Amino acid sequence: MKYSSYFLKTNKDAKAFDSINATLLQKGGFIDQVMSGVYTFLPIGLRTLNKIERIVREEMDTLGSELLMPALSPVELWETTGRTGVDVLFEARGANDASRKRNDGRYILNSTHEEIITPLAKKNRLSYKDFPFAVYQIQTKFRNEERAKSGLMRGREFRMKDMYSFHTSEEDLLAFYDKAKDAYMRVFTRLGLGDSTKITKASGGDFTSGFSHEFQTICESGEDVIYVHNETGEAFNKEVAPEGDGFSQHNASEVGNIFPLNTKFSKAFDYTYTDATGKPQLVYMGSYGIGTSRLMGVLVEKFHDDKGIIWPTSVAPFTVYLASLNRDDSATVAAADAVYEELMRAGIETLYDDRDMGAGAKFADADLLGIPYRVVVSKKTGGNVEVVSRTTGEVETQSLTTFITQIN
RNA sequence: CGGGGCGUCGUAUACCGGUAGUACAUAUGCUUUGGGAGCAUACUGACUGGGUUCGAUUCCCAGCGCCCCGACCA
């Protein structure tokens, strides 16, 4: 991608917020705030979000099938479960419904999809032979948070992966629940958050009278408090924190959660299957969420320095930031063009800074954007390239071939 | 939802009861070219509604918006 034609504009003078991810993501041109808790993902930000979601998708594919449910739903489905009173729920109405004398034009902007998936499953998964199964989607969710804050950490519109599983027994549900735990940890490990993310016991909230598990990433700016046992590593949300010594307290951000719903929603929608003896039985369900846009915020909170973001390689929007210096020298420009072509051929995602700007501005952008490798082509580099690691700051002058071999 | 703060060019900020300055960005020209370049010129602004006042961007009230603290967070 050539910087000169990319829809990207960094702004070193952008407003600094208390929240690191809000500040750096806006300075770097990853996101643009439209209103409190609502952001546009700009091209380089969307690229990053897509990388995160691709990892989530790959791991979820081992558990279920991807589908896409609507963002909008009729209020009646929510009245069925009695969850219309949840105060984070957005209600929507057609602008002309009143003038058309339609009093029933009420919709919900979905905050989660149990109300959609349960009636769907009921349409064709009715025999015990159909079980178990699971479906998931990655979608924009809406929650009217009374106080949106901290950039992508708590928005009113955000991206979330939600998965739903269906079973004929509680044992089968819990077996799947454990598999989901493993898959979740694989996601967080691939994102570089394996060590800092704790499977945390929490209350079930509105979903269930029983327990649930949260995936809490230890993070100074996190809005939850968890207690981690120093020896066993067991973690508890402060809402269910046990008494006793041996626990250390951490701020953490909830990047995922899983709930054994049991029969709460199948009861509400009268979702039963026919068992082997011909009798109707309630379906057992589980619900599993990962906040993908929040994860992007958490990654910035954890991986940055005073110059900008330091993306883990697995989610970096580009692998290489190619800084072409001495743009007034045609031979050097030609050399940079050739390096870009070569990187493209090697399949290395490259942001080619072909702008007519000073070296300082380009280096500052490379640092701010957090791209893992900065490759410089200038009068000084001759037939080689200068490679700087964003993570370690190590500088190495080497042939392009050597570099490509190293990172592939 | 309670409390606090703040609304000024596209962005970030300053000053002020007598119509507003700077930086970045943008445009043009010249110079510059390894850590966010320099000079010159140009362009652009007081959230909305009421009130006080000869006069309000400034003071007061209300609304709206944003940020922060707390509560909340299925």
**Radius of gyration based on Cα positions:** 25 Å
Largest sheet: 5 strands, mixed, barrel
Q: What is the 3D form?
A: elongated
**Which range best describes the helical content: under 10%, 10-25%, 25-40%, 40-55%, 55-70% or over 70%?**
25-40%
Overview of this structure, please?
The strands form 6 sheets. A 5-stranded mixed beta barrel has the order 9-10-13-11-12. The protein has a 5-stranded mixed β-sheet with strand order 20-19-21-22-23, with helices on both faces. It has helices spanning 20-27, 43-60, 75-81, 114-124, 170-190, 264-268, 292-302, 330-345, 359-369, 400-407; strands spanning 31-35, 38-41, 65-66, 72-74, 90-93, 106-109, 133-142, 157-167, 197-203, 211-218, 224-229, 235-237, 247-262, 272-274, 280-282, 284-290, 304-305, 308-309, 320-324, 350-353, 373-377, 385-389, 395-398. Helix content is 28%, strand content 30%. The chain binds one RNA strand of 74 nucleotides through residues 9-18, 33, 35-36, 83, 86-89, 111-112, 114, 143, 145-147, 149, 154, 204-208, 212, 223-224, 254, 259, 323, 325-329, 356-365, 367-368, 376, 378-380, 386.
